[in-house]
Write a structure and sequence with these properties.
The chain has 267 residues and is of the alpha+beta class. It folds into two domains: 4-181, Arylamine N-acetyltransferase fold (2-Layer Sandwich); 183-266, Arylamine N-acetyltransferase (Arylamine N-acetyltransferase fold, 2-Layer Sandwich). Helices cover 31% and strands 28% of the residues. The protein has nine helices and 13 strands. It has helices at 4-10, 22-35, 41-44, 53-62, 69-83, 185-193, 198-201, 237-248, 260-266, and strands spanning 38-39, 86-93, 107-114, 117-121, 133-134, 141-143, 146-153, 157-164, 167-174, 204-209, 212-217, 220-225, 228-233. The strands form two sheets. The chain has an eight-stranded antiparallel sheet, with helices on one face. A five-stranded antiparallel sheet has the order 1-10-11-12-13. Strand 12 (220-225) and strand 13 (228-233) form a beta hairpin. It is globular, with a radius of gyration of 18 Å. The chain starts with a helix and ends with a helix.
């Protein structure tokens, strides 16, 4: 069962002054991004991720961990509802390198309804928007993470795009329909087990900072600030674990591998 006060403390807040309005939503998303990393470590530590908000809470709040989109947005969605927001879980498709879209349920985001306005809240898409994005097509929206726009896509769907040096780059496409967390199960398992999933290829742990971002991969520790970007080579598992503990407060679990659970789960 979720303890709202402990969850808020995990992201550096208390219940006082956190109300279900636009300012409250912006504060919650920003604080979540500053304190809870996007990471896929359990996949490489061979620990099965199931779509269970109780397990998400234990991992993110009690164990001081992060997670990937289903975990981060799945739990954040529950927090928003507990505080009094009206929400829906969104299924999003992500463009690949060749422009092809991934299947439905490839990414989970959140639609938040406040009065007559709708916002896309997302704490589980890596270096994405630092604030909720107003679901209002063709209006540029700027925050500390960049400039974003919502565009109509094939009539019934929406695309969120981010501006870069080459123009607008599509981030993901979704409809405003709500979904149950269980509907993401097949895709969640695929991301943990398929050799084609980018999550099975490399480890990543990344968190927003007040003036940039820090990211740890198998081979690099990357810091970006207003002053620029720095990279440090990661030469071993021991070095990776040391940086993971120092920079993110995460330790490799001592328990034996449980990846056989994945094999049992897919049989």
């Amino acid at each position: 069962m979720m303890n709202v006060e402990k969850y808020l403390a995990r992201i550096g807040l208390d219940r006082t002054g956190v109300v279900p309005d636009v300012a409250g939503l912006k504060l919650l998303q920003r604080q979540h991004l500053l304190n809870v990393p996007f990471e896929n470590l359990d996949i490489h530590w061979r620990r099965l991720i199931l779509l269970d908000t109780t397990a998400f809470y234990r991992k993110i709040v009690e164990e001081n961990r992060g997670g990937f989109c289903y975990e981060l947005n799945g739990l954040f969605n529950e927090l928003l509802r507990e505080i009094g927001f009206e929400t829906r879980l969104l299924s999003a498709r992500v463009p690949g390198e060749g422009g092809d879209l991934s299947p439905d349920y490839d990414h989970a985001a959140i639609l938040v309804m406040i009065g007559e306005m709708q916002y896309v809240a997302d704490v589980g898409f890596g270096a994405f928007s630092s604030e909720p994005i107003l679901l209002l097509p063709d209006r540029e929206q700027e925050n500390s993470a960049g400039i974003f726009i919502v565009r109509s896509y094939e009539g019934q769907s929406f695309e969120i795009a981010k501006k870069d040096d080459a123009g607008w780059r599509g981030e993901y496409i979704f409809t405003a329909l709500g979904h149950d967390l269980s509907e993401f199960g097949e895709r969640c398992l695929w991301h943990q087990t398929s050799p084609e999933s980018h999550f099975t290829k490399n480890k990543i742990c990344s968190v927003m900072t007040v003036n940039g971002r820090k990211t740890l991969t198998d081979t690099k520790f990357i810091m970006t600030t207003e002053a620029g970007r720095s990279e440090t080579d990661v030469g071993s598992e021991a070095e990776f674990d040391s940086l993971l503990s120092l920079e993110f407060g995460i330790s490799r679990p001592v328990s034996a591998s449980s990846f056989s659970l994945v094999e049992q789960y897919i049989q």
